[in-house]
Amino acid sequence: MRSFYYGISRNRHHITFFVTFVTSVLIYLSNTAPEIIYLRSKFISVFSILTEPISHIQHLMYVEEESALLRERNTQLVLQLETLLKADEENKRLKGLLDFKQKNPLQLIPGIITSTGMTTGIQTAVIDIGRVEGVNPNTPVLTDKGVIGKIILTSDSESIVQLMNDINYRLAVRVQPSGASGIMRYISGQICEIHEVPKNAQIDVGDRVVTSGFSDIYPPDLPVGKVTGVYEERGSFQKIITIKIYNDLNSLNHVFIIKDSING
Q1: Quick check: 246 pLDDT over 80?
Q2: Among positive and negative, which fits the CA dihedral 117, 120, 124, 128?
Q3: What pTM was estimated for this model as a whole?
Q4: Which end of the chain has less neighbouring CB within 10 Å, N or C?
Q5: In this predicted structure, what is the pLDDT of residue 207?
Q6: 205, 123 in Cβ contact below 8 A?
Q7: How far apart are CA 204 and CA 224, in angstroms?
Q8: Distance CA 23, CA 18 (A)
Q9: How far apart are CA 158 and CA 117, in angstroms?
Q10: Which CATH class for the 107-264 domain?
Q11: What are the helix (H) ranges across the chain?
Q12: Do 146 and 248 touch, CB atoms closer than 8 A?
């Protein structure tokens, strides 16, 4: 108790000031004299001016916070839209594959490419089906767009495909509607060349290129690509045809294996 009184005695000046200040404010606020009312209005005006920057800063902070939330929400919506577009694209692609399989008279086995790269110096891809599904070496591989290569090695659950962009790959093809045949080999990108084409063959840019059926591996009339250029070999009875194959061999995914191929 003594310490309490001692504390009051020690801080009596502060306490007296506080009590006096509070009392003065209460008297000021309760006074209805015109002069006091005028002073109060001036005080409120000054107080408003002083607090306006603080209110403005608070408003800016609120707007920035709301803007950040809107940006976050917008990013989420963009990601959701991208997911939906990707799902729609995948759905259309799978539907196209299903339609291709149903309309094609050949017996097709669907597969998925799990990796691509070089295998013993050959440009290859690995697919997720093998001998268990009836896949054998020298079996044609294609997509719903056209030929991409052939099976060269199989295990029970996987197979290795030699792709058309391998420098050693050759394919017997025919140009329609002329019917001129030749041997196709890879150049770069989606560009290939057809050699051993008769010089008198009537071939135009845009003509379709299909498998000729001369091979023991590929059935006839499988789609390959379209003619992009025709060049005559000087001093030769042959011409060179450049074509663009239908498939981008760097972005393959779903494929088909022709089970009942000529050699299968």
Answers
A1: yes
A2: negative
A3: 0.61
A4: N
A5: 95
A6: no
A7: 16
A8: 9
A9: 15
A10: mainly beta
A11: 2-10, 12-30, 34-103
A12: no
